Amino acid sequence: MEEHSLNSSYREKLIEHLFIGELLKLSWIKKDYSVEVSKPEVDNSGYDLIIEANGFLRHVQLKTAFVGAETSRQNIHVSLAKKQSGCVVWIYFNQDTLELGPFLFFGGQPGDPLPDISSFETAKHTKGDSSGLKKERSM
Fold first, then answer.
1. Which of 40, 72, 87, 117 sees the fewest Cβ atoms within 10 Å?
2. Domain of 34?
3. For the chain, what is the domain count?
4. Taking 70 as the threshold, does the pLDDT of residue 129 lie above it?
5. Which of 59, 26, 27, 55 is nearest to 40 (CA)?
6. Do the domain assignments include residue 114?
7. How far is residue 122's CA from residue 95's CA, in Å, rounded to a whole number?
8. In CATH, what number is assigned to the domain containing residue 84?
9. Is residue 129 part of a domain?
10. In the structure, what pLDDT confidence band is assigned to residue 88 with cuts at 50, 70 and 90?
11. Where are stretches of biased composition, namely Basic and acidic residues (predicted)?
């Protein structure tokens, strides 16, 4: 659907809010009420949310794709490895109903750092320079 690419920033925020809502709903259902969610003022450390629950803090980078998308991989910000319990949550969603799921998770146990990503391929810019060369992205 064309609106998903034309309005990708809007969609990204919408999915983020739906995800937070699902976390809070689960906390409510379990009568836990301990989930706290914060957002960074500046987006330069690779995470979108800070989530605390049951004494554990996680720095979470969110990735999204609609169910059936051909996307098979995502870029991870290298600074996420320096954050407490850094992790990536890849949220698939139904592009017609925006129902969330399935969810993919990349991270360690609560309190553990992000698994080593130093051997992963470095992401490249999506647009090439004047000669068509796509340079590596620094982070």
1. 72
2. 2-107
3. 1
4. no
5. 59
6. no
7. 29
8. 3.40.1350
9. no
10. very high
11. 122-139
Residue 48 domain flag = yes
CA–CA gap between residue 50 and residue 58 (Å, rounded): 6
Q: Which residues of 73-112 are buried (b: 16+ CB within 10 A; e: fewer)?
A: eebbbbebbebebbbbbbbbbebeeeebeeeeebbeeeee
Can you tell me the distance from the alpha carbon of 53 to that of 28, in angstroms, rounded to the nearest whole number?
12
Helix (H) or strand (E) holding 38: strand 36-38
Between 61 and 76, where is the model more confident?
A: 61
pLDDT of residue 5: 67
Tokens 């146990």 belong to residue: 109
pLDDT at 108 over 90: yes
In a domain, 138, yes or no: no
Distance, CA of 46 to CA of 26 (rounded, Å): 25
CA distances to 19, 29, 100 from 14, rounded to whole Å, are 9, 22, 11
The answer to whether 79 and 139 have CB atoms below 8 angstroms apart is yes
Strand pairing of 100-107 and 56-66? unpaired
